[in-house]
Each structure stands twice: as C-alpha cells, then as structure tokens.
Amino acid sequence: MKQLLTGFLAGVLTLLPLSFFGAQTANRTGNSSQATYKTLTHDFGKIQETDGPVTYTFEFTNSSSAPFIIENISTTCGCTTPEYNKEPVLPGRSGIIRVSFDPTGRPGVFNSPIIVTSNNRRDQVRLTVQGEVIARPKTIEDLFPFDLTTNGLRAASNNLIYGYMGKGTKKFQTLEIVNNGTAPLQLGYRATDQTTTPANLYKIEFNPATLAPQGRGTVIFTYDLTGAEVYGQLSTAFLLTANGQVATRPISAYATATDDFSTLSEAEKANAPKANFSSQFYHFGTVGRNKTLTQTFRITNSGGRPLIVRRVATSSNRITYTLPQTSIAPGETITLTATLKTPTRPERMSETISLVVNDPERPMRELRLGANVE
C-alpha cells in the first residue's frame, strides 16, 4: 500500500508544470526563477525629513540560461522612485535596481513595496524599502498657516465649528494666534456683512489683549443661547485687527441651534418624536429657463410624541415652500410643497430647504432640489 501511494504522488508531481515550482519559489523567497537578489528588503533606519531623498541599490544576478529583462517596476507611492536598465541581463551577469525614497511630508514609519515584473510574466518580485522619517521641526508658518495681517498676526485656523447647540446653552472655543512681527500687537475685531447671528448671541475676547513680538495667545469665541429663543444655523464672520490693521481674511464660527436634548432620559428618548421623510432630494433633470417647478415631500412622525418643526429656512429666494402645519402628531403625515424658480440663463441649480425639528436623533434636515437649466 505504501509503495502504491508513493508511486501515485510521484506521478502527480511529474504532471505538474515546472512553472508551478517557479511560482512557488517566487512567492516563498521573493526571487524569480530567473533572477536572484542579494536582498529583498532594505531598512534605511531613522532618516531626517529635512535631509531629502535617500537611495539604496538592489543587486541581482541572472541565474537562468536565458536573458533577463525588467519590463516594469511599479510602486504604491509617489515617494518611491525606481531606476533600472531595460537592456537584457545575460545569463550569469548582474544588474541593479536603484530605489530612491523622498521623506518630504511623510513623517513616521514607512514600508514601501516595489514590484518588479520581468519578461517571464509569471515572475513578480517584491522589493521593500522601509524605515522611519523623523519629522522636521514645525515652523511658525506650519503651526499658524493663516497669515492675517502684514504686521505679523497669524492664526492656526479660520473656522470654529460648534455643531448642534441646545436651547439655553453656552459654548466657547479658542483659536490660537501668534505675533510673528517685531512690535507688540493690540488686538480687536469687527463683524463682517456675512454675519447673520445677532450680536447678543456671541462674544469675542482675547487672552492676552496685546501680543508681544513672537508671543502667542488665543481668541475666545463664545456662543451664548441662554435666554434666547433661536433655532437654526448660526453663522458669524469677523475680522481680527492688529494695531488697527484689519485682517485680510475672516474667521468664521458656525453652530446649529436646536432643542436641548441633553437632559432627556433613555425612556424619553425612546418615546421622542421621530421625523421620517419620503425623500430628501429631487432633481428635475434638464429644464427650460424662467420656469416654475414643484415637488412634494411627505413628513411622517413615527415617534411617540408630537413632532414640531421649529424653523424652516431656504438657501435663496429662488426656492419657496408651503407647510400646512408645524406640529405633527404621532403616526401623522403631512406634505411639504417645494417650488423652484429657474433663472433666465443656463445654470446647474442646487437649492435647499432646511428644517429644524425636535427629533433628538436628527434635529437638522435638508431638502434639496436640483435642475440643469438650458
């Protein structure tokens, strides 16, 4: 029996193509059936980002009886650049693949593969360069990329995003700034025309009020909704001033005022209103100019308490709506009718209707209408 089994296995192995063994060797060692590499991996160790590209040369020998030709080398990253000779490497001769790695903008550990495809298409060799890039020290320009005034005021950001804010709550955020100039800067601000938030709902403070040369400080921006009956998008844009010089770009703060759901118990959340929309987007396709287009959206309250539409706002006067009521009983459905007025010139239109509701899961919803106007 043992002799029969041995003979059977020998027969199966005889029938397998030689390329099978070549492919298995390539997958196991990384060397192809034609080329033998001295090493398949090079570790650059720790390199400095500021020192620029580093290079390593992989050496190989044509260990077959046929010419060896590199047809293609692919990489997964633009930071790795291979150089090689496309001339055939004769049997017994050696060749090289020079690989450069550029660490610029790539701090941290890296492992970059290089895939070599030869004229024997079944052979693909994976070479690897690896190491760790030590990040260059961050400059003032890196830390504070927003150049605001010519006398040296810079900021770390130009946006303050608050997300949802419950009725009656107060939130503040800080924005880091620096005086990159040579003289002290006395700080101030002025609101821009883009500000839609009433002035009594926000406050801007500075710490410190005067920045010494190369000194750092913070802008403290507070949205205060205590005692305010306000719902919907809060948008505030203001320009910082330094020694009276007005910044060239604004700082913007955004929040969405909703009901305060933070005090709801789990039972109250489970029984809360729930807004379901039949759809939230409709595209009219290609339409003519100066047309009036209409689309309806059904709003259903699938929750356990009345759903209240706190506020409705449109993105422009080109879109209007009618809503039969703002309170929707549990299980009830109402229809919002949206009307889009197309312009007198060709345009790709996109307009929205924003609704603030007392659904704690998603208190802000948008209905969007689009059209291609010819």
Give a quick precis of the structure.
This protein is mainly beta.
- CATH level-1 class of the largest domain: Mainly Beta
Outline the biggest β-sheet. 6 strands, mixed
On the 0-100 scale, what is the average pLDDT? 91
Cα Rg: 33 Å
Secondary-structure-based class equals mainly beta
Q: How much helix, percentage-wise, in residues?
A: under 10%
What is the CATH homologous superfamily assignment of the largest domain?
A: Immunoglobulins
Per the CATH scheme, the topology name of the largest domain is Immunoglobulin-like
- Please tell me what the overall shape is: extended
What is the number of beta strands? Answer: 28
How many domain regions?
A: 3
Strand residues, percent:
over 45%
Explain this structure.
This protein has helices at 2-15, 18-29, 140-143, 266-270, and strands at residues 35-37, 41-48, 54-62, 70-75, 80-84, 94-101, 108-118, 124-134, 146-147, 153-155, 159-166, 170-179, 185-191, 202-207, 210-211, 216-224, 232-242, 245-246, 251-258, 275-277, 281-287, 292-301, 307-314, 319-322, 327-328, 333-341, 347-357, 364-373. The relative contact order is 0.10. The protein starts with a helix and ends with a strand. The strands form six sheets. Strands 11, 13, 15, 17, 18 and 19 form a six-stranded mixed β-sheet that branches. The chain has a five-stranded antiparallel β-sheet with strand order 9-10-12-16-14. It folds into three domains: 27-134, Sandwich (Immunoglobulin-like), CATH 2.60.40; 147-258, Sandwich (Immunoglobulin-like), CATH 2.60.40; 266-373, Immunoglobulins (Immunoglobulin-like), CATH 2.60.40.10. It has four helices and 28 strands. The model is unreliable at 1-29 (pLDDT under 50). With 374 residues, it is mainly β. The longest helix has 14 residues, at 2-15.
